[in-house]
Protein 1
Amino acid sequence: MKINGTPYRSVWLNEKDGWSVHIFDQTRLPFSLDILRLTTPQAVAHAICTMQVRGAPLIGAVAAYGLALALREDASDTSLENQASMLAATRPTAINLRWAIERMLTRLRPTPPAQRVAAAYEEAGRICDEDAAQNEAIGHYGLALIREIAKTKKAGSPINLLTHCNAGWIATVDWGTALAPIYMAHDEGLNVHVWVDETRPRNQGAALTAWELGSHGVPHTVIVDNAGGHLMQHGQVDMVIVGTDRVTRTGDVANKIGTYLKALAAHDNAIPFWVALPSTTIDWTVADGVQEIPIEERAASEVTHVSGKTAEGSVARVQITPDGSSAANPAFDVTPARLVTGLITERGTCPATAQGLRSLFPEI
């Protein structure tokens, strides 16, 4: 995707040295576009934990490069296993992280230590390329759904889509998941408009999704998280489309906190609720998402404090709760499969059921 006309991926190697890893510092967006140069696995782990880099597919890709950086320091078997465990422990909910580390280990364990660094960079690069291709395919399959909605709209009426959190290209290596079909629809000339949930407490919708859509020229409106149901009741939402951090083999979906409430409202108003994901986000070992998917509990300060731009143009962090008030901060919730209209993957769409997933991935 492009920023001010310049194409970028969300993670890339430094062109000069060929081995250090570059990412955008997502905690600085939308007010500042800062690029971080990561040179150690510890720096990668810190970037993931602090959400300088976030988004399930992107976390996995960056962690893969983190393992390559670790092997530059020590390519022994012990280092390989220890550094892989350290990186895998940085975020518990997103399954892509564990998938990427396990794929790297499968490639590197039988490789002689002297050849591991080159092999690690090669495999991490392949993970990135595959993610970009998968998300582009997701975009095409999701575009077909938006085209069908367009056929039902009166001439000149916008296609109103609602999304929660950020599932755009900044959350993946390129294209994004839930936003990929929206970009393609906009580029095709369809009259799309996006309701962007602010997505408290970290405001990934207001900060990241709105920034992405605005940079691409897609019409959008930021709304408070609790406005979605009202808009649905008044016929102002044609489809909800979100990403996900983990999908069970039965179709349950873990996504940013608040997604479950959007699914309930969509179900109550007979509005399609679609989830876009690459197959690397499917956890084939889990059947019951509510009971089995670990939900990350993040710092209370994310709830009690908020960052924003002052009237003078500086960025400040302020407290919004009374002194002494405690805060809970579960980062994700699980939407049961019964509330999901369907899943959009790189192989096509399917019902959010075990049978639906097996129809697309029979080899599993």
Protein 2
Amino acid sequence: MKVNGIPTRTIRALDDGTAVEIIDQTLLPYRFEKRVLSDWRDCVEAIDVMRVRGAPLIGITGAWAVVLATKENPENAALIKAAEQIQNVRPTAVNLSWAVQRMLAALLPRDPSLRFPAAVKLAEAMTQEDVMLSRAIGDAGYGLIAELYRKLRRPVNILTHCNAGWLATVDYGTALAPIYFAFERGTPVHVWVDETRPRNQGLLTAWELGQQGVPHTIIADNAGGELMQKGAVDMVIVGADRITRRGDVANKIGTYLKALAAKDNEIPFYVAAPSSTIDWKLNDGKREIPIENRSASEVLSLRGIDRSGEVATVQLASPNESAANPAFDVTHNRFITGIITERGVFFAHQPCCSLPGSDCKCRTLRNLR
């Protein structure tokens, strides 16, 4: 996508893979700055403090972290130890462990002296693959928006939660990719952008939509239900950090409440994610998906621009207050209309597939595997 009219990606290799360059998303939307990571520990720190964020981009950054670990020490013990630290830095997004394990599976059978160039080659391939997956998700989801437009004959109002645009991937995004495709192809859209407390990732969504010229409006997290009740929302599209094999979805905290409101108002609720976000080992999302708990400071303080134009953090609550900060929640498959993947739109759940002995061939996730 473009920043100030210049085609830009969230991550790219430098100096033949000996370093990577990222957009420091902790400074957005106030300042656009890039940051060079030359050590695998820099990648871990970037993932941890959310300089990079979004399940697909976390995964690709993890792959490049393995590259840099291989550069430092390609021997088995050192590489496996580094990989363990990399994949455990954020537990909810399955793309991180998926990417790290994919790298290890390709590297460990090789002679250590041959591992670094092989690591660079695979990480580059995974980076480009992520772009193609996002484009395929955009193409698949575009059909849903176009169908609504043909029915409504007015701009389609889409509500999002968190940021699942190109900033959360290498390029194009997941939940925003269908919106970008619709906009580029002349289908009128308007996006309701949840602010998404406590990290305010909705501000990143608004920033990137603004860079592409897509009409949008920022709303408080709790405004979505009221907008649905008065008919101002035609569909909801969100991303995902992990999807179980039965179609339960872990996404940014607050997603579950949007799904409940959409169900109550008979508004289609879609999840957009690459198939690498599906954790085939898990079934019951509420019981089995690990939920990351982040620092209370994210709830008790807020970043913004001060009067001098500098990025500053202000305290919102009394210094003696405590806070809980679960970063994600889980939405059961029964609240999800469909899951938009690179291979098309699949149902999270169909009653016919739950019948004993069913060999149903409908477009459910189990037939995606």
Protein 3
Amino acid sequence: MGRPERMKSALAGSSPVDPPEHTQHAPDTVSAAETGAQPSPDNAKQKRSYYLYQSTVDDLLNAAEALSATPGAPRGPSDLVNAAIEEYLELLRHRFNDGAPFPQRTGPLARGPRIR
């Protein structure tokens, strides 16, 4: 006896950020597709989950709140994290890859213990 076929959620593929094409837009709004403008891959944001130490998260949120009214400062925790990662990646490129971009990965990252 085989396994039953997996049921697919009615919400699969739906997103409040990217509504399906068949939904109606308000008459006064113009979508990016209608104007021909598309977000560049560099400006498109992607939600990710990573584990951070609680003290790091506390410091991050404290910094975001302290800098919230400072002109030119990152506008929130996501912008702070993004700026910090970009700066650190630049340092890693110079230290380990002669300043060149790292090669494109060929698939998902390997799971399990690191090879030393």
